[in-house]
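Lab meeting, item 3. Inverse folding demo.
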């Protein structure tokens, strides 16, 4: 063998070795929070404070990740779920987000809850290029891939939802006098904007807008004022504690308007039951998740899987609480994204995969509701169906509607 031939063989062998080693490197890419054995996920929930009814979301997610870990993890890696309480207080949310990123060194912050809390940490997480993924709030602003490429929503946005209510009011109650109760923050104002956009030139139908602070102990006085305004349609933009108070107070003072309750408080377990089923009859809301209290899902495969999961991993859960179904479904969404990531567990790839979901069907979603995202659409779920409260459960009516609000 000539020297030239030997060199050629050697260089070919070196090229093969180089290619295979770079291939191995290409197979596994990690950012802070991911290793061969673990994916560290951060989460912030109001386990205490005025929105503590939502704390079960974090508990459900923790239980679901236990199930995933027991079944071998995701691509062989176990999820380490680190969840902190912020009491629904934005300054506390900032503190917890910094702790998760700088001390715990999580790969991403998943499903932090609430519009004001998420607003408080959005710029920080985007500056650090840490995914703020599937936030537990329907504010329209989470769908802004250009302005905030590291933040993505999950549920249908608030403006879309209230536009659907506005369309229904215009069609079925064209001469209505509308009274609105809303939380005085980004969450409440987002819903109110959607309602006004949906009413268009008919915003004069709104006869009274009553805002309240989340720190208030009760909203009873606002309900009395709304009744006195002569409103015969009530748009109730409140979180569970205040939603239950409003339904009770309406019954107490004999005010019986056509009542629209925002989807975030449509839980049978945490709102309708505490308010008294008899007081909630014919309230209209919207849904994209299956209602666990609805007998029609008894033999549904998705509902059976949900019940089996709870039996084994979260037996003490209140199965009538829609927040348990929410936590289960969004956790499945994250698992799908992490599976798609394969061995490239960089923060950039997490966002890339989260923005590449096509027609994903999850067991807890209503038939016809699918998860879809793209590089220009950070609103995973945009479909809703109207529901009316009858007896002890919600009954669906009308078509599944796409309520995607325009704008970021």
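The presenter then showed the designed sequence:
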């Amino acid at each position: 063998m000539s020297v030239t031939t030997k060199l050629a063989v050697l260089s070919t062998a070196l090229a093969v070795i180089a290619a295979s080693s770079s291939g191995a490197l290409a197979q596994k890419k990690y950012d802070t929070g991911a290793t061969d054995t673990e994916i560290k996920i951060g989460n912030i929930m109001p386990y205490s404070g005025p929105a503590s009814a939502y704390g079960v979301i974090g508990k459900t997610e923790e239980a679901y990740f236990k199930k995933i870990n027991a079944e071998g993890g995701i691509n062989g890696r176990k999820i380490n779920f680190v969840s902190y309480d912020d009491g629904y207080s934005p300054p506390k949310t900032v503190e917890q987000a910094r702790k998760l990123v700088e001390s715990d060194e999580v790969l991403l912050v998943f499903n932090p809850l609430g519009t004001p809390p998420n607003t408080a940490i959005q710029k920080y997480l985007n500056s650090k290029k840490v995914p703020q993924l599937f936030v537990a709030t329907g504010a329209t602003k989470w769908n802004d891939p250009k302005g905030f490429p590291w933040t993505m929503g999950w549920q249908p946005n608030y403006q879309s939802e209230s536009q659907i209510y506005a369309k229904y009011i215009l069609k079925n109650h064209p001469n209505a006098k509308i009274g609105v109760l809303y939380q005085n923050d980004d969450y409440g104002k987002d819903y109110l904007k959607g309602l006004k956009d949906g009413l268009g030139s008919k915003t004069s139908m709104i006869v009274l807008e009553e805002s309240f602070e989340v720190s208030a102990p009760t909203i009873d006085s606002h309900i009395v004022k709304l009744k006195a305004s002569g409103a015969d349609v009530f748009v109730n933009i409140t979180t569970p504690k205040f939603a239950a108070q409003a339904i009770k107070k309406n019954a107490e003072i004999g005010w019986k308007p056509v009542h629209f309750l925002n989807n975030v408080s449509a839980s049978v377990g945490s709102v309708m039951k505490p308010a008294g089923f008899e007081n909630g009859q014919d309230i209209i809301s919207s849904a994209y998740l299956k209602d666990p209290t609805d007998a029609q899902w008894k033999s549904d495969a998705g509902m059976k899987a949900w019940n089996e999961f709870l039996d084994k991993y979260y037996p003490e859960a209140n199965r009538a609480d829609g927040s348990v179904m929410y936590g289960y479904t969004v956790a499945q969404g994250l698992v799908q994204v992490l599976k798609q990531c394969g061995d490239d567990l960089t923060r950039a790839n997490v966002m890339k995969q989260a923005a590449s979901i096509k027609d994903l069907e999850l067991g807890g979603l209503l038939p016809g509701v699918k998860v879809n995202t793209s590089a220009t659409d950070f609103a995973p779920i945009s479909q809703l169906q109207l529901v009316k409260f009858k007896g002890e459960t919600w009954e669906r009516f009308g078509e599944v509607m796409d309520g995607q609000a325009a704008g970021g």
